[in-house]
Amino acid sequence: MKKAVKSQRPVNLDLRTIKLPVTAYTSILHRISGVILFLGIAVLLVALGKSLASEEGFEQVKGYLASPLVKLVTWGLLSALLYHLVAGVRHLIMDMGIGETLQGGTLGSKIVIAVSVVLILLAGVWIW
Question: So where does this one cross the membrane (predicted)?
Answer without folding.
Answer: 28-49, 69-86, 107-127
